[in-house]
Predict the structure.
Amino acid sequence: MFSGSLPEVDRILSVFDNTEIETRNLCKPTDYYFTTHSFEERNREYIRISLDYSIEAVEKSLAMAQVGREEVTDIILFLPSD
């Protein structure tokens, strides 16, 4: 699917093969990847979808830990230093 836009797709795919990740998911319908989108549009969608996934992950984590939202006072994020 990406061979036209990624000339070295085989080299890149071999990296994915070595991660031992068993499944992958696309966050947009397959047709989206066959059409041209500006950098701004792709970036806007990335931000929107990653925020949706982040909220879902936090909510699932709280449910698994049996912790209510009102019990969380702080969220600490560690970013790698340059």
Remarks:
- The chain has a mean pLDDT of 84.
- Residues 39-65 form the longest helix (27 residues).
